[in-house]
């Protein structure tokens, strides 16, 4: 009984004495907005320290490195995060028991399914920024493996990431693997049929993959799509912008029950981005060869909320079991000392709080814009709609290739 009494109060002191993951990373998030390098300094020691929250810190560390344009280091960090996610994909008996007595926070964080898929999607962006198409293709294959497993396991449809699928399709197309690209575009359409750019993508991909029956099917499905001559021009290139907008939703305790989390969207004034492409030799004031607004392919806000709702029944069952376990512990202590048992019951219930852990540095949404161009050197101007954020980048588009740009706005 002495050991039980000691264990309960040591655990309570530990739980109430250490800050939650949200509080521990709040300063890092603020630093990312000001200077990713400051966030890297804060997150690096946490990411390299083994523990129940290591996966979360590693994900935020990898994201901060990406925002600092340290893409090679970010790629290594995302790969490390994936290994941690695989190794943490279990719950130890002792920690599950502890979560019943205390809080879900004592269990090691293993990541939501959509987060695990996004590890590879985010890492593919690193390789694209470094111009390493082979590395990006490795991440695409890992995405496909994970999504196939989720389908086989009967997981919810919202876990089928249209962003990861669409990004993979563009990478396959850039590598001239046209049949693989067509399949990926088709898979993306199955989970995101309202993403209008896919209508052109499916017809273009069917042409390049030499699938005449599929081509006729999509032409009938989308009669408004006009086949463009450049789709058959193997010399034609493309500038692709992947726009990551804002911050994903934050977890807070529910207003009506502090034991359970809820997600709250982080407001942003930015709605989209506009990409304009100019020849590098063009005089000032000349018209762009192409200009396009981004279209949203994936909302982290929507997916995170659906994931939490899908997990709600398990959370409720866990807390019901926890209430029973607390009652047993308090009763055992009350047998020895009435006051001690009463205090333990009160303390155990006060300590039972919502698990607010999440990959907190994800954007609110991923958006895409694509402009077809002839091979050559270009200046690409970017503008975030709803803010004063702008960016200008020089790119070279090689014959039949794509130049990928990644832009994150944190306003």
Task: Reconstruct the topology from this structure.
Blueprint: H1 2-17, H2 21-34, H3 36-47, H4 54-67, H5 71-87, H6 93-101, H7 113-129, H8 133-152, H9 162-174, H10 178-191, H11 197-208, H12 212-221, E1 237-245, E2 250-253, E3 261-264, E4 272-279, E5 290-293, E6 295-299, H13 300-336, H14 338-350, E7 365-373, E8 376-385, E9 390-397, E10 402-409
Helix pairs in contact: 2-3, 3-4, 4-5, 5-7, 7-8, 7-9, 8-9, 9-10, 10-11, 11-12, 13-14
Task: Describe the model.
The chain is α+β, with helices and mostly antiparallel strands and 411 residues long. The protein has a single domain (2-409), classed as Tetratricopeptide repeat domain (Serine Threonine Protein Phosphatase 5, Tetratricopeptide repeat). The protein has 14 helices and ten strands. It has helices at 2-17, 21-34, 36-47, 54-67, 71-87, 93-101, 113-129, 133-152, 162-174, 178-191, 197-208, 212-221, 300-336, 338-350; strands at residues 237-245, 250-253, 261-264, 272-279, 290-293, 295-299, 365-373, 376-385, 390-397, 402-409. The chain has a four-stranded mixed β-sheet with strand order 6-7-1-10. The chain has a four-stranded antiparallel β-sheet with strand order 5-4-8-9, with no helix packed on it. β8 and β9 form a beta hairpin. Mean pLDDT is 82; it is low at 1-18, 90-103, 315-322 and 343-348.
């Amino acid at each position: 009984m002495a050991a039980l009494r000691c264990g309960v109060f040591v655990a309570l002191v530990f739980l109430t004495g250490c800050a939650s993951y949200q509080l521990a990373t709040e300063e890092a998030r603020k630093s990312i907005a000001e200077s990713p390098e400051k966030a890297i300094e804060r997150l690096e020691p946490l990411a390299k320290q083994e523990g129940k929250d290591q996966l979360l810190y590693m994900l935020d560390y990898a994201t901060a490195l990406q925002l600092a344009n340290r893409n090679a280091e970010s790629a290594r960090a995302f790969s490390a995060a994936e290994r941690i996610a695989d190794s943490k994909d279990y719950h130890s008996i002792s920690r599950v028991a502890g979560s019943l007595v205390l809080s879900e926070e004592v269990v090691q964080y293993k990541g939501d399914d959509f987060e695990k898929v996004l590890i590879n999607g985010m890492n593919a962006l690193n390789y694209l920024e470094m111009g390493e198409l082979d590395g990006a293709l490795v991440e695409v294959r890992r995405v496909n493996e994970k999504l196939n497993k989720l389908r086989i396991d009967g997981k919810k449809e919202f876990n089928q990431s249209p962003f990861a699928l669409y990004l993979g399709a563009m990478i396959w197309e850039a590598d001239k693997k046209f049949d693989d690209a067509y399949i990926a575009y088709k898979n993306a359409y199955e989970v995101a049929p309202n993403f209008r750019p896919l209508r052109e993508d499916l017809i273009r991909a069917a042409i390049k993959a030499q699938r005449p029956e599929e081509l006729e099917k999509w032409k009938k499905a989308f009669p408004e799509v006009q086949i463009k001559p450049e789709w058959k021009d193997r010399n034609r290139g493309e500038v692709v912008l992947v726009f990551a907008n804002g911050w994903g939703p934050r977890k807070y305790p529910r207003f009506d029950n502090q034991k359970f989390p809820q997600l709250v969207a982080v407001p942003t004034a930015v709605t989209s981005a506009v990409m304009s492409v100019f020849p590098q030799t063009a005089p000032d004031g000349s018209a762009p060869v192409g200009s396009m607004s981004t279209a949203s392919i994936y909302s982290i806000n929507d997916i995170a909320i659906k994931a939490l709702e899908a997990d709600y029944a398990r959370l409720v069952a866990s807390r019901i079991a926890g209430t029973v376990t607390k009652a047993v512990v308090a009763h055992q202590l009350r047998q020895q000392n009435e006051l001690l048992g009463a205090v333990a019951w009160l303390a155990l219930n006060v300590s039972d709080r919502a698990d607010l852990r999440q990959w907190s540095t994800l954007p609110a949404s991923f958006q895409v814009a694509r402009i077809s161009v002839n091979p050559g050197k270009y200046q690409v101007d970017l503008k975030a709609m709803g803010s004063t954020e702008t960016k200008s980048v020089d790119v070279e588009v090689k014959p039949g290739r794509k130049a990928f740009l990644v832009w994150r706005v944190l306003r």
